[in-house]
Amino acid sequence: MSREPRPDDSVTSTAQPDQGLWVYGVVDAELDMVEVRGVDREPIRLVRAGRIAAAVSSIVLDRPPGRKAELLAFQSVLDTLAAAGPVAPVRFGTIFPDEEAVAQFLEDRREEFERVLGGLRGRRQYILRATYVEELVLEEVVREVPEIRELRERTRDRREDASYGDRVRLGELVVHELERRGADDAAMLFGFVHPLAAAVLERSEVAPPTVMDAALLVDEADAERLVEVLEEVAEAVHERIRLDLTGPMAPYDFADGPSWAS
Amino acid sequence: MTIQSTQRRSDGGYLGRPAPSGLADVLEIILDKGIVIDAYVRVSLVGIELLTIDARIVIASVDTYLRFAEATNRLDLYEKGKDLGEMVSDLQRGGASGKAQGAVEGVKRALGRGHSDDEDDDRSSRPAKRPASARRSESR
Predict the structure, then answer these.
(1) Is the ipTM of this complex over 0.90?
(2) A188/B26 touch (CB, cutoff 8 Å), yes or no
(3) Residue A180: which of A135, A149, A211, A138 has the closest Cα?
């Protein structure tokens, strides 16, 4: 949206330009342009530097950010680009003053970006989450850990203030037991996905009842097999663990290359 | 649109295939991800930094302990035929064999007889969110 210049604009806008370029990601320069609208429904275009390019759209900076719409547009653009070719997402909210600055940024890190795009070619990201079926796993630990069973029996029928220390101790034991079992179960699940993924990253530290939160970079040729294997695993473990697979999506977790690209 | 997802278990499968559609889902996926540009050469939208305030750090606090103690005390224990401990160790042995195919067979062997009782699938809906999943990003 545009507005009439006001007399004092020359004073207030010296620090920041009114217009900028929202940068979504780094792509191949020869990418076939995709039909998708960016933030503020602006068309996406490429700023090229040699064999690589940045996917950008124009943005007017002088209005409050409408975050939800921007987030959804950002995601939509990147996932659309990812379906068309390799893309290394740039962090949400990155805006450059003009095309020269974008081209300079590409030029400065050209080798890094070419290597990262090479590692992403023909691959898509998935997110795999595993969560305990809490009630069932709690039953498991009560049944199998005598100290937990005893504390439970000691605390469950007493007033809360009369058993505070025991209840904290009970919860602590349960949490630690779930963490221990969660680590074992996560190792089992990683064992299934490693042979089918080009790279696997743990996205965050997990705490019970979450067992696993992992980003998988998967060759498109292996995607079907991955889903088949995970479906079988999900069926086998479903009483204790719930598995959720999201994707394919843009490789948000694999944009920085060095930690995983060889 | 390009995230290809099916409704959860619409085909009777056990693997959930959620589509990240809500704001929280999308935030969770894209927050703090991607190539970082030197702050000196970019311009950021006013207020965008708020999005990077991320309360993902999970601290096992007394509150967490009390929540799990309460959940444990609420359990209505009843005896089941299946030895879960045995099942878990079978699963782990299967998973350690590396090759996905062999591992899946290991899981199936370990659980081979349990496939008929599927009725408890929906009752478990979503377990409670992990404690620190709350974000302050929308607080402004």
Answers:
(1) no
(2) no
(3) A211
